[in-house]
């Protein structure tokens, strides 16, 4: 019993408690690590043209998995989203292609895009909602 109380008192020293607190903190995921999958899911992205002779109102579903953005149907989509929600994406369908950037957060996102659609140089904005 004396050995138990001796080891318990050694354990309770401030230095030992500080070390335990540090180890416990290191074992928990940081808030940034916890958010890595925070944007996962299918996002419906609607494009609006502000410059150029391109149609507006097209909607395209994107999938976010971890930091990767890909197509959820139709066209080739590639891109990345970082832990703070900043997103960069490239989209191509046939000879048309565009790139865009912006930010995702919670259940919505927004940004801008530019590209060549059916031979016309265009640019505009996009808005996304998570399904």
Report what the structure shows:
The protein has an eight-stranded antiparallel beta barrel with strand order 1-2-3-4-5-6-7-8. With 131 residues, it is an alpha+beta fold. It contains three helices and eight strands, in the order αααββββββββ. Residues 1-36 have low confidence and may be disordered. 19% of the residues are buried.
Largest sheet: 8 strands, antiparallel, barrel
Largest sheet strand order? 1-2-3-4-5-6-7-8
Oligomer: single chain
Unreliable segments of 5+ consecutive residues:
1-36
Task: Record keyword descriptors for this entry.
131 residues, eight-stranded antiparallel β-barrel, single chain, disordered N terminus
Write the layout of secondary structure elements.
Layout: H1 2-11, H2 14-27, H3 31-35, E1 41-51, E2 58-65, E3 68-71, E4 76-81, E5 86-93, E6 96-105, E7 108-117, E8 120-130
Antiparallel strand pairs: 1-2, 1-8, 2-3, 3-4, 4-5, 5-6, 6-7, 7-8
Summarize the structure.
Helix content is 22%, strand content 52%. With 131 residues, the chain is an alpha+beta fold.
């Amino acid at each position: 019993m004396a050995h138990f109380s001796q080891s318990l008192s050694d354990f309770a020293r401030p230095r030992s408690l500080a070390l335990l607190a540090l180890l416990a903190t290191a074992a928990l995921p940081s808030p940034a690590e916890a958010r890595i999958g925070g944007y996962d899911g299918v996002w419906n992205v609607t494009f609006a043209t502000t410059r150029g002779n391109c149609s507006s109102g097209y909607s395209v579903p994107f999938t976010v998995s971890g930091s990767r953005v890909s197509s959820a149907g139709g066209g080739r989509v590639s891109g990345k989203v970082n832990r703070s929600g900043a997103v960069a994406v490239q989209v191509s369908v046939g000879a048309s292609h565009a790139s865009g950037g912006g930010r995702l957060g919670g259940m919505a996102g927004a940004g801008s895009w530019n590209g060549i659609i059916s031979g016309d140089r265009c640019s505009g904005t996009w808005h996304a909602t998570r399904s």
